Predict the 3D structure of the following.
Amino acid sequence: MNASKIVPLFAALLLAACAKDTPQALGTLEYDRITLPAPVAERIASIDVREGQQVDAGARLLTLERTRTEAQTEAAQAEAQRQREALGELEAGPRSEQIAQARASVSAAQAAARDANAYYDRLRPLGARKLVAAADVDRARAAASSANAQVKLAQAALDELLNGSRREDIAQGEAAVRAAEAQATAQVATLDKLDVRAPRAGRIDSLPYRLGDQAPVGAPLAILLVGDAPYARIYVPETIRANVKVGDKARVFVDGRDAALSGTVRMIRSEASFTPYYALIGKDAARLSYLAEIALGKDATQLPAGLPVRVEFDGR
């Protein structure tokens, strides 16, 4: 083959190579989203921001009605204080006045028992000689037995006071104090959450409810877009999945911008999206796609979320 034929053939091959499409994937720009749920079902008392506004970490976004939660918090704190006082009473033991009262009860029971026993002792020989009815003797014996039992009861009550609180009672009191304090702490935390604040700096993406609305518990009160820059969420075709890995460089093209943004693959799923691979056969397997994320630099800071992007992986 002469030179006149070789040059045109080489040029044709070069043009064919240049015309070959660069592997690419499609997707959109996204930010990390933070959803702030309603801690309680209360009316929105104030809204301090607007959608699209940039806010700092800790900035108050909106406030919920506080009356009911404040009352519940005060009740929980009062219950915790009551349990602490009850524990202090257990640890201090009985008062001297209670012990004196118990001693007096023992003395009174002993006096009543002596009188009942003496009466029974006088009546018993008379009953043996049939000088009194047997029923009177039986009543006297029962009264003496009851009086003796009252002495034992009063003495046991005195001994209980003298021995003080049991370890088990104190342990139960301590547990009750911890439970009440934990409940009070939880109520204080809920009260603090009524001032809904931004956990991170970001942009207000959505405020689903308006002033005066009462959102149910767990409903999103505000949605924030956070992060220094957006990232590209793309779907990598199965035909190039084997050649794409975390850490690879990529070029991200955004509609409306001529220059490509430089990015790095930060995540790629191991499982295909939408259709399980085992449900596809033959050429259908090439329709699989894998969700991936491309981290972008500071040159993408001002770009909004939702823009369509096209990503190329050089040399794939």
